[in-house]
Design goal:
The structure holds 2 protein chains of 2 kinds. By secondary structure, chain A is of the alpha+beta class. Helices cover 18% and strands 28% of the residues of chain A. Chain A is elongated and about 60 Å long. Chain B is α+β, with helices and mostly antiparallel strands. The longest helix of chain B has 16 residues. The two termini of chain B are 28 Å apart. Classes of the chains: A alpha+beta, B alpha+beta. Strand 2 of chain A pairs antiparallel with strand 2 of chain B.
């Protein structure tokens, strides 16, 4: 449900649509795709797919050798966390700049965040030694909506993952609702 | 190479409407924290109960990367190691929190042939007694078994 036309806050966000949030270039994974992190992952999930750790078996498959679990895509480029101060930053593992639509919405009182959709696409499985890079583009920002959590805006961005100069290996489309807690909610 | 490694689904035996064997994940704090840290997500809502409660959550809750990790496992446990995931699309709902078993269910929604691969779309759902935690679809490709199809 949309409550009217483009409000001034939303109008000010228009310039972000289609823009890269990676102004200083793609984020480069701290480490290459590697066996210790794959082992940590498959043990955490109890995933016994032999393609992820059994080299002899993996060689016999179409993957030609050990491949990383595809759902690890985002994990490779997660920044190194700054544990000290993480609670004071509201839970963010690193410093967040103010020059992005999420921070603009938070500063305007839309401090709540709810993830609503994740769409992952895989062009190929990653192999040990691959060094991943990621870049983020804002795809869309909704009009102001009146949701069960309060007034808010849906923000959608697409992260493109590459290996080397421009080989796209995967994408993630991610949508969140930035809402103002306690604002006039439907049915309350 | 053990016997359990060799069981990829023969595409010829997959039919639209087939149900995947359900998977019940007993969600504990350890399950949530292990997934969060393995996926390198250090946000305190996924490991610090006091922090999560202060944010309005009932308890620590599963991060999205972990949900995707279990969805991936759920589908490849059925499809087998020759399966290649092409996509995982989920819509997020109720949180996955300690003490509430998450039941993964799935059904083959479509099946087609693309050159030497069989493309299978599986409709998936992960739910607990709060409601649907995640619903969506996973597309997986399998090498064609040339003897059939």
């Amino acid at each position: 449900m949309t409550d009217g036309g483009l409000d001034p806050l939303r109008a000010g966000l228009e310039e972000w649509i289609g823009k890269s949030l990676s102004a200083s270039g793609p984020a480069v994974a701290p480490d290459e795709v590697n066996l210790p992190m794959i082992r940590h992952w498959v043990d955490a999930f109890g995933d016994r797919n032999p393609v992820y750790l059994d080299e002899a078996y993996a060689r016999s498959t179409r993957f030609g050798g050990i491949a990383a679990p595809p759902a690890m895509l985002q994990t490779w480029t997660m920044g190194r966390p700054q544990i000290q101060g993480i609670a004071e930053r509201g839970g963010s593992a690193g410093e967040i700049g103010s020059d992005n639509p999420i921070s603009v919405l938070s500063a305007a009182g839309y401090t709540g965040t709810l993830a609503t959709n994740s769409d992952l696409e895989f062009e190929r499985y990653l192999r040990p030694g691959d060094r991943l890079e990621s870049s983020i583009v804002v795809e869309s920002i909704s009009d102001r909506k009146n949701t069960a959590l309060g007034f808010g805006y849906f923000v959608t961005w697409v992260t493109t993952y590459t290996v080397g100069p421009g080989e796209v290996v995967g994408r993630q489309r991610f949508r969140i609702l930035k809402f103002k807690p306690g604002s006039d909610a439907v049915g309350s | 190479m053990t016997k359990e490694h060799t069981g990829s689904q023969p595409p010829s035996e997959i039919a639209v409407g087939d149900e995947l064997p359900p998977f019940d994940l007993r969600v504990s704090p350890t399950v949530i924290v292990a997934g969060a840290i393995a996926s390198r997500d250090f946000m305190p809502v996924h490991h610090d109960r006091d922090f999560a409660v202060a944010q309005g959550a009932p308890d620590i809750f599963m991060n999205i990367l972990t949900t995707n990790g279990y969805v991936s496992r759920f589908v490849t446990d059925w499809a087998g190691p020759e399966a290649m995931l092409r996509s995982i699309s989920i819509r997020l709902g109720a949180p996955a929190v300690p003490g509430k078993t998450l039941r993964f269910t799935g059904q083959v929604a479509s099946k087609s042939v693309d050159q030497d691969e069989c493309i299978v779309e599986v409709a998936i759902r992960a739910a607990n007694d709060l409601g649907d935690h995640a619903t969506g679809s996973v597309i997986v490709s399998l090498p064609l078994d040339h003897a059939a199809l």
